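Progress narrative, Year 2. Work on Pentatricopeptide repeat-containing protein, mitochondrial from Vitis vinifera advanced from sequence curation to structure prediction during this period.
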Amino acid sequence: MKSEGLFPDGVTFLGYLYACNHGGLVEEGLRVFKIMIEVHNLKPKMEHFARVVDMLGHARRLNEAKSFIDEMGIESDVLVWEALLSACRVHGR
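Result:
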């Protein structure tokens, strides 16, 4: 993308996080989320936070998902809590 003069935007990163989630690539997803913020200076939207919580939840990393919510720096909304509660229900917690 860079060589073509194209740079990823929030939608690009949302798609990447979605792919990591459904591919079970949690560490890669967390790395990409960090790159989005630190390298590309993009401010995550609630959809990005919800996707990370969902990704952690699918991986049964529920405590980490809750800690992520607590450390988001903004007030979470229904998307984020729905992702966590859904994972808790699926994994019987």
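Residues 55 and 61 are 9 Å apart (CA to CA). Residues 9-90 form one domain.
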